[in-house]
Known about the structure:
The protein is α/β, with parallel strands linked by helices.
Amino acid sequence: MPEGNFGLFFVLFYLYTLAFLYKINIMFIKSLILKNYRNYSNLKLDFHSKKILFIGKNAQGKTNLLESVYYLSCLGSPRAKNDTDFIKWGENAAFVSAILEKPDFETELSVKINPPQKKELKVNQVKKSKSSEFCSHLSVVSFSVNDLLLLRGVPEDRRSWLDLAISQIYPAYPDRISKYNKIRTQKNNYLKEIKGNISANTELLDVWNSQLCVAGSNIIYLRLKFLNELQKIAVEKHFQIAADEYFSILYNSTVSGDINFAAEQNITIENIVQDFQKKLEERKTEEIIRAQALVGPHRDDVSYFINNIESKKFASQGQQRTIVLSLKLAELELIKQKINDKPVLLLDDVLAELDNNRQNYLLNAIGNETQTIITSVDTVLFGNEYLKDVEVFTVENGAIE
Length: 401
Ligand SMILES: Nc1ncnc2c1ncn2[C@@H]1O[C@H](COP(=O)(O)OP(=O)(O)O)[C@@H](O)[C@H]1O
Ligand SMILES: [Mg+2]
């Protein structure tokens, strides 16, 4: 290559790399199809705006709609335990599909739930056998009225929130969770077999334990990494709403004790494995007596503090809402940083539960650069400014106008 050309090539390459690095794409759902999904028999929607509003009375199917988008992002849902929950009652199969637009290309995602067969995942009409290949395309952040109960709810809800959020960043995470749960089920079955017999031969238990330790340490490691980064952003968000309060997070682990994220953490997977092995050994007899796996990420919890006081017991309703709002906005920001795309935001009935101040903060924080799908009972809550370029659909009994 002549020298002049080489220089030009170098400059172009540099500019291209720079543009690539700094370009954060917007994920845009262009269309959605539901067949026998929850209370929808047959629905096809096209979206033309970044702001979408579903209006409807209670029990008409607004949450179901958002849930279907959520499901396409990670093949999970905060309110379903089983894939069969999604199938319209009386039907045998459900189908969900969407076209996702990024500036340079489109991706068609589709799932057919048709038990007892394995669900069929397709990306651009091509079958995918691994859920991680499917879950790497669409990312969403969901903020629903139930999330406002996150602090006071049961630990399972907080774990589920954490795991679903991490799934948006690490598409392989849901697979790891199911692998861990499979090993845990096998361990539990064995514990039930030898129930209470502390002199039983525990060789098989040791085998399950060592597998559980490897799979579980990985999960705890990813949770800690996520919370560590989330706290940094959430503290800022929280400070913008309540300047006199300092917000912090604690991960309460059955494996490694309480872990805070105030100081820079040097979390290594080796340390977690060591703690895990130690705790499994310490509580082995107790596990045999109670015939239950008592140690591991399935028993961990998260707690939130304002000015070092635990919010679960002491925070006012307003303070709790500020915490959840900060966490959700931090989640949005963190996912954006991690995947270099702006995830789709789903706001389910949540605005009605926030006061004016927090509503405005939320709508301003979202800005115009995120596709936002909102459900509400009516449009009263939204100022004229917000409603200007919003696309409004009316939901009634599993159909949409
Ligand atoms: N698998 C299902 N098949 C048919 N209907 C369902 C299914 N799951 C939930 N529903 C119905 O969907 C309706 C609730 O929809 P939802 O989206 O929660 O309403 P909302 O508009 O209040 O958000 C309820 O009437 C419920 O009975
Ligand atoms: Mg609802």
